[in-house]
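> agent: user asked for a holo structure of the chain below bound to zinc ion. Plan: (1) validate sequence alphabet, (2) canonicalize SMILES, (3) run complex prediction with ligand conditioning, (4) return tokens. Step 1... ok. Step 2... ok. Step 3 dispatched.
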Amino acid sequence: MTVVKRYINDFLHLFFPHNCAGCGTGILNTEDALCAECLNKLPATGFFSTPGNPVEKIFYGRLNIQKAGSAFYFTKESVIQQVIIQLKYKNNPQAGAYLGKLLGAQLKNSARFDDVDVIIPMPLNDRKLFKRGYNQSGMLVNGIVSVWNKPVLEGAVTRTLFTETQTHKNRIARWETIEGVFEVTEPNLLSNKHVLLVDDIVTTGATLEACGNAILKLPGSSLSLATLAYTV
Ligand SMILES: [Zn+2]
């Protein structure tokens, strides 16, 4: 899809009724991504209020996190799978903002995350960002902060592919893995901060671990994680 087409599509999506991102049938108002039936089908995990939840267990012994959680269980052929497909592959960034609101409400309702200082969406590499036209985690974060008053530092951490030329930069926290090279480009803004890193889905935790390691190299930083979905 060309950039122009994408803008037109976004514009139409904003101002005209559209279909439910879960079932594709319901006709919705401008701000909703899901019909009431699909919204009720979303399987909330309750993880954010639960110390030692399955997401936190993924990172035991791997990454020194404060807290972690996911809003919904991800299962195949489910509403949440459909919405994530819409968000990642069907040019539907509004679905991200909508789901981000639901995620943000869960974070807000769990007092465990009150001491988060700043939110960072999981960065994409430039190639993926260009192809998709937006960062799906950034869309989730837009929704989160519309209901939970926290500052966002999108772009404070960048992600590049191994194949791209790496120029050496001093005093920048880097972490290299198969997931790419994560670099903290704004170390002064993240040092001594409790950072909440947000991603769409957690499975093995490899990407969150790699990005989190770059953040935790900063002096005084601490880290928590939040994802929209958790793979059972
Ligand atoms: Zn629906």
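> agent: step 4 complete. Summary for user: The pocket of zinc ion is lined by residues 20, 22-23, 26, 34-35, 37-38 (CB under 6 Å). The mean pLDDT is 88.
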